[in-house]
Amino acid sequence: MPTNVAALDVLTIGETIIDFISAEETSDGLRSATTFVKYLGGSPANIAVYVSKLGGQAAIISKTGIGAFGKFLKSELQHHGVNTNYMVMDHRVHTSIIFVSRSKTTPDFEPFRDSDFKLTADEISEEAISRAKVVHSSTWGPSREPSRSAVKKAFQMAHEQGKIVSFDPNYSPVLWPDYQEAQAVMRELYRYATITKPSLDDAHRFFGAGHKVEEYLEMFHALGPKTVIMTMGGDGSIISQEGNIVGHVAARPIKVVDVTGAGDSFWAGFLVAMLDGRTLEECALFAREVVELKLTTVGPLPSTIDRQSLYAKLPPVSEAVNRDWTSS
pLDDT tens for residues 57-79? Predict the structure, then answer.
């Protein structure tokens, strides 16, 4: 990395899209939703924003159109302090959008994709990779070409440079109907990953249902990552390092008003704490604080989050982390 260029804490690769989230909570998903509110969306974009709100240096490589939606997304990212120097705004594409139901559980969604998967390998900035401490992506980009090749290039470069490579296996058959192809591509990307955050739902979709949590953790480790953090909704999160369960962090009872982006807020909190030199257990406890803020907030989080005050609220690891956890 050039000595005169500041480091980036987290560089995300992938979709920056418009989220149209239903204004009302519905019992049958999008079928009865009638009113929608426009938000900045896309998992990589959300993570970059949350990292920035927590005081970290974040950037994103993604592609949008040049119309009103693309300009809105770039403006929102800049407003939240995200470096947009590596974004590509292309007049030949339309900005991708997604309609999402407001829900206290896994939301219903329907995407209309164009710009997000048209990011090319040539548009991956070598400077951005060299500046980053963490390079992160999810399965949206790899689900289609040419963005599949773009993410693969970014992961290869980051791996060769000894970066932390973070992969979110948020596989969905809605986005990626060819299951066998998804298996092959994701397994190839996992060769470069050092850390991953599957949800239990992700594990079910990728490996199939019917396994114990411990077995899912072993399966993810077998793909390559040394560190696996599995989130389980109301059952908290599990930390596993090099095939050994480090501990379980329980979820606390809160009034959930919006789950959209909850996983992204958790992961941004975890990565920020990790870069601050915290233990994996402390990272998970810090991430719990961040995700609770998101779950109890409709729409985006406040423009800044005082991470030192969140650190001050963390309970002792010995009291809050169950090291003897086993699945029932």
Answer: 999 999 999 999 999 999 999 99
Q: Specify the CATH number of the domain 8-20+35-322.
A: 3.40.1190.20
* Token pair of 82 as six digits: 């995200």
| The two three-digit tokens of residue 5, written as one number | 């260029």
Q: Find, among 245, 175, 127, 165, the residue nearest to 17 by Cα.
A: 175
Q: Report the Cα 151 to chain-centroid distance in Å.
A: 14
Please list, residue by residue across 198-217, b when 16 or more beta carbons sit within 10 angstroms of its beta carbon and e when fewer do. Answer: bbbbbbebbbeeeeebeebb
Distance CA 273, CA 20 (A): 30
Q: What is the CB neighbour count within 10 angstroms for residue 146? A: 16
Sequence length of the chain is: 328
Q: How many CB atoms lie within 10 A of CB 252?
A: 11
- Reading across the β-sheet that carries 237-241, which strands appear in turn? 58-61, 8-13, 132-138, 164-168, 195-196, 227-231, 237-241, 244-249, 321-322
What is the C-alpha to C-alpha distance for residues 312 and 328, in angstroms, rounded to an integer? Answer: 33
Q: Is the pLDDT of residue 208 over 90?
A: yes
The answer to whether the predicted template modeling score (pTM) of the entire model surpasses 0.85 is yes
For the chain, give the percent of residues with pLDDT over 70.
98
Rg, C-alpha atoms of the chain: 18
- Give 220-274 pLDDT, tens digit per residue: 999 999 999 999 989 999 999 999 999 999 999 988 887 778 899 999 999 999 9
> Which residues, including other chains, have CB under 8 Å from residue 32's CB and lie 6 or more apart?
26
The domain ranges of the chain are 8-20+35-322
